[in-house]
Amino acid sequence: MPGAGAVSAPVGPSATTVTPASTASRRNAELGLLVFALAVALAAFATLGLGVDGAVPARIGSYAAGFGGLLLVAHLALRRFAPYADPVLLPAVALLNGIGLVMIYRLDIAEAASAERAGRPAPAPDALSQITWTALGVVLFVAVLVLVRDHRGLQRFTYTAMAAGLVLLLLPLVPGLGTRIFGAQIWIRVGPFSFQPGEVAKIALTIFFAGYLVLKRDVLALARRRVLGVDLPRMRDLGPIVVVWLVCLGILVFERDLGTAVLFFGSFVMLLYVATERRSWLILGTLMVLAGGWLAYQAFAHVRTRIDIWLDPFADPQGAGFQLVQGLYGLAAGGLLGSGLGQGRPDLIPVAKTDFIVDALGEELGLTGLMALLLLYGIVVERGLRTAIAARDSFGTLLAAGLSFILAIQVFVVVGGVTRLIPLTGLTTPFLSYGGSSLVANWALVALLLRISDAARRPAPPPVPETQEALTQVVRR
Q1: pTM for this structure?
Q2: Rounded CA gap, 258 and 307, in Å?
Q3: Among positive and negative, which fits the CA dihedral 448, 451, 457, 461?
Q4: b/e string for 268-302 if b means 16 or more Cβ within 10 A?
Q5: Distances (CA, A) of 368 to 246, 247, 329, 372, 374
Q6: 426 within 8 A of 355, measured Cβ to Cβ
Q7: Is the dihedral of CA 111, 113, 118, 119 positive or negative?
Q8: CB neighbour list of residue 402: distance below 8 Å, 6 or more residues apart
Q9: 20: how many CB neighbours lie within 10 A of its CB?
C-alpha cells in the first residue's frame, strides 16, 4: 500500500469517472443492501420467537418500524450530505447492529426465565435501552455528516484532539467521578448515567495520530543505524512511540484496562507503518508490546491473573476461570451449525451481553454463523482500507486507515480473548455488544469513514482553461 506521502492525486477510476447515473445506482444499491440487512435482522427476530415460544414475537412490528426508520434516516442523510460515499459500509454496520439487538433481546428473555425459576424478580430488559442508544448513534452519525463537510478541516485540531483524548482517558481516575466495574476503572458516572470516555478518546487520538504523522512522516522514515538487520530511526525520533507506549502502559496500570492499551498502541504502530513504509516500526512496536507485557506481568497481580487464566482456565473452573470456561463450553455446545436462536443457554455465560456476546452468538448460531459475522467485520475493515487507499490527501489516508485499524484490532482482541487465542482484555464487540458508549462512538467512527469516502469518490472539478485562468487573475488584481 502506498505511503501517506504518495497519496496526492485521485486513485482509481472511481475518483474521475463518477456520473449522476452511477451515483444514483450506488445509492439505490445501498438502499437495497439496507433492506436486506433489515430483512435478515427481522428473520433472526422471528426465528428467536419461534425457538422460545413457538410463535413470531408480537413486538416484531414495532422492532421493524423502529430499527427500519433509523436506517432510513441514516440512508437519507448519507444521500443528502455524502452522495458519493461507499455504498457497502452503512448496510454492513446496520446488519451487525441489528443482530446485536436481537441477541440482547434473546439474553433478556433467558435472564427473565432464570429469575423466574429461582423465584427472583426479573431484571430490567436491556434491549429497549440498546435501541435507544442506536437511535442516539444514528443522530450522532447524521450530525457528523452535517458538521464535518470536509475531513481535512479536522487536521487543524491535531493537538486539540490529543489533549481531548488524554483528558477523556484520565477522567475515570478523577475521585468521585470514575467508577470501577468488573475490576477495570474505565467508566465515569454522573447521577444515574454512566459513560466510557475511552470510546470517544479512540476517535480523538486517531485524529491526532493522523495529523501528527502527516507532519512528521519524513523524519520518522529516516534510518540512521542498523541493529540485527533492522533499520532504526534516530533516537530523538523514537520519542512519539515511546510516549504512546508509556501512556498505554499507564492506562494498563492505573485503570486496569488491558484492551484499551493494546488498541491505542497497536493502531498507532500500524499508522506509523502506513506513513513511513518502514517495517522497523512494526518490529519495534512488537518488541515494546512484549517488553511492556512482561513488565506488567512481573509487577501487577491483575495482569498475572489474566495471563494465568489464559494459560489454563480449567485450573480454577469455578473461580477465576469460570467466565472463560463457560464461554468455551457455549462455543462447544454450538458446534458447526449452532443450537438455534432461542434453543441454547447463553445466559450461563457471565456478562454475555457485553464481553462475551461472541460466545453467546457462537452457541446459538454455531461456527458457521460466527464465521459469517467475522466476514461481515472483514468487509467493514476492507471498505475502510479501500477508502484510505483512494483518499486524495495524506491526512485522509491516515485517518481512514487509523479508524479501520481500530475496528480490526478491537474485533481481533475481543474474539481472540473469548476463544482463548490471546488473554482476555474486556473490550466490547463493535455494534454487537450492549453498551451506549461503544455503540454511539462507533456510529460516529463510521460517519467519518463515509465522509472520507465521499471526498475520495467525488469527481474532481474540471480543469480551468488557461485563458480563463489568466483572465481570472487579471480581474483579481
Answers
A1: 0.88
A2: 11
A3: negative
A4: bbbbbbbbbbbebbebbbeebbeebbeebeeeeee
A5: 40, 39, 17, 6, 10
A6: yes
A7: positive
A8: 206, 209, 210, 267, 270, 271
A9: 9
What is the spatial distance between Cα 172 and Cα 180, in angstroms, rounded to a whole number?
Answer: 9
Task: Give the C-alpha distances (Å, rounded to integers) separating 13 from 39, 390, 459.
Answer: 33, 10, 10
How confident is the prediction along the chain (477 residues), in pLDDT tens digits per residue?
A: 444 344 333 334 344 445 555 677 777 888 899 999 999 999 999 999 998 888 898 889 888 999 999 999 999 999 999 999 999 999 999 999 999 999 999 999 988 888 888 888 888 889 999 999 999 999 999 999 999 999 999 999 988 988 888 888 888 877 777 777 666 667 777 766 778 888 898 899 899 889 988 887 777 766 566 665 556 666 666 666 677 767 766 776 776 777 778 888 888 888 888 888 877 778 878 888 888 788 878 877 777 888 888 889 998 888 888 889 999 999 999 999 999 998 988 888 888 888 899 999 999 999 999 999 999 999 999 999 999 999 999 999 999 999 999 999 999 999 999 999 988 877 889 999 998 889 999 999 999 999 999 999 888 766 656 555 554 554 555
Pair 182, 351: CB distance under 8 Å: yes
Helix (H, G, I), strand (E, B) or coil at 463: coil
